Amino acid sequence: MEPERVPVEAEHHIVTARQRARTMAAELGFGVVDQTQIAAAVSELTRNIVLYAEAGEVLLSVVEQSPGRVRALQIVVRDRGPGIQDTDLAMRDGWSSSEGLGLGLPGTQRLMDFFELNSKAGVGTTITVRKTIP
After folding, report:
1. 7-50 confidence digits (pLDDT tens)
2. 95 phi and psi angles, rounded to 5 deg
3. Which residues are CB-neighbours of 28 under 8 A, at least 6 positions away?
4. Domain containing 66: what range?
5. For residues 61 and 76, what is the distance between their CA atoms, to the nearest angstrom?
6. pLDDT tens for residues 52-64?
7. How far from chain centre, in Å, is Cα 65?
8. DSSP secondary structure of the chain
C-alpha cells in the first residue's frame, strides 16, 4: 500500500496533516490518548517545515516492525530546507532555534515509540516516527 502524502507549504497544511494523522490513527484502532499524541507529534513536525524549510511533505503509512507480527503507524516528515546544523543540540530539552519553548523534537520523541532524525545542511531533514498499533 502506498503511503498517503500530505504536502506542507503553508500554515493551514499543519492542520490538514494533523487531522489526517488523527483520522488514520482512529481507523487503525488507537485510543483517544494515542490519537492525541500522534496528532501533537505531526503538528510539531509540520510546524517545523513551515517555520524553517517553507515546503515539505508528510507520508502516512502502516508498516510491519517485525515480519507478520507487530504493525505500526509510520509518519515520515521531510523537507528540502537548510537542514539542522546541530542535531544533538536540537534534541536537547529546552533548546530552541527560535522563540519557541524548545520542546519540539525531544517532546515528539517522547510521544512516539520510534523516532529517527536525519538532517544534512543544504539538503534537508527527514524525521521518521512510529506508534505501534494496539
Report:
1. 999 999 999 999 999 999 999 999 999 999 999 999 999 999 99
2. -90, 140
3. 62, 73, 133
4. 4-132
5. 9
6. 998 999 999 999 8
7. 18
8. -PPEEEEE-SHHHHHHHHHHHHHHHHHTT--HHHHHHHHHHHHHHHHHIIIIIS-EEEEEEEEEEETTTEEEEEEEEEE-SS--S-HHHHTSTT--SSSS-S-HHHHHHHHSSEEEEEEETTTEEEEEEEEE--
Other residues' Cβ atoms within 10 Å of the Cβ of residue 133: 16
Q: For residue 130, give the nearest of 7, 50, 30, 55 by alpha carbon.
A: 30
**DSSP string covering 5-43:** EEEE-SHHHHHHHHHHHHHHHHHTT--HHHHHHHHHHHH
Name the domain count of the chain: 1
Write the CATH number for 82: 3.30.565.10
Cell digits of residue 58 = 508528510
